[in-house]
Amino acid sequence: MEAYVTRQPVREINKKLFANDLKYSEDNSGNQLETLISNIIQRYDPEDALANIPTILEVKEYNITKENKNKLLCLDTHSVYFQFNNDCLNSREKTEIISSLKDSGYKIIIELNKEDEFATMANILADIVKVDIHGLPDKIIKKGSMQGKLLAYNVDTSEDYMMAETSGVDLYEGKYIGEETSIQIDCNSHSDANFIEVIALINNEKASIDDIAKAIAHDSLMSAQVIRLSNSVYYGARTRIEKVRDAVVRIGLSSLKRWIFLLKFVRNDNASEELLKTSYHRAVFCEEIAKKSKKCSVKSDDAYMIGLFSALDILTGNTIDKEMSQLNLSETIEDAIIYREGDGGMLLNLVKAYEEANWKRVDNYIDKLKLTRDDMYKMYFKAADAVAKVWKSMTEFGGLAG
């Protein structure tokens, strides 16, 4: 099923584009919110100045839950402003959720209804107060105690625009500023937001097995994949598992961290199997080098991740900066993959030089890591055996994507 939402530009007083206001309607099932989160993630590109314009995402009252908060936390703080209606602040639980998002670094917009006074709580939480240009409360016009910016919407005529200018408004939205445009989104596509949430939780030492299992359970296909994996001969399954949590326990968080990447991309028809194999081979190769070298400061788990995510930009078609910014990985891993810096960068450079048979570079790196070509030969083929074993196991239990 395809859905349509509208996007309207919000501009500063100097007409500079400030943000795009995403407007949508749905029933109170809240199913569209996850799709919109995924859409924002896919569109946001830190390297693209135009794509880097933040999105204003209204979180409707029935969507302000602890479960949805974890999904919202998948978004980059620079990519989005969260908008809430002032009525939400009447609930202590919802106010606490909004406050925790603000504490996490997100900018908050509070929309006042026409009949609302300028409330103290809105002033405390709001980085931006949003009001109808035809319903500006006197207390806001004076702006004596207002901490954030003022955004006026329904600025549809030149008269509305003049009213906004003389009222001390900082931001404008309406037909006079820019027309709404329609955006088509696919509600049936599996959400990247959920995959990112799972990755972030697995890499969060404070996250519990229950948290991770619950996140996996949000995606029916990922749930089926994890359960099938736990029941495969790869794990010597004797009793059949039917629950996601039990599957996660059997696989183990350390192993799940290694599998989750394949679970994601093996179901993508556009993903190259050879590229997936290359990524997995690099992961094991980097891990073995980190274990073998006494001069490498990178932990073996981090080394594995450096290899695993080294081709993520090619697999997704997005910039590596964008992909890495969403995964909550360590600085060591990010520096290695994005900038090729530190021992992690040297590790990845060595592996790529070995793949390219650039022996001059290989000798340079192995000299620094106190390794030999014979060491590299053995570790390379150990990684190749690991790839063969994993792909064989996928065949034995019917493939991960089925």
Task: Explain what this protein looks like in three dimensions.
The protein is an alpha/beta fold and 402 residues long. It has 3 domains: 185 residues, Alpha-Beta Barrel (TIM Barrel), CATH 3.20.20.450; 76 residues, no CATH class; 132 residues, no CATH class. It is 50% helix and 13% strand. It contains 19 helices and 9 strands. It has an 8-stranded mixed barrel with strand order 1-2-3-4-5-6-7-8. α12 packs across α17 and α17 runs antiparallel to α18. The longest helix is centred in the C-terminal third of the chain and has 24 residues.
Instruction: Kindly estimate the percentage of residues that lie in beta strands according to DSSP.
Output: 5-15%
Which consecutive residue ranges, at least 5 long each, have pLDDT under 50? none
**Biggest beta-sheet profile:** 8 strands, mixed, barrel
Structural class: alpha/beta
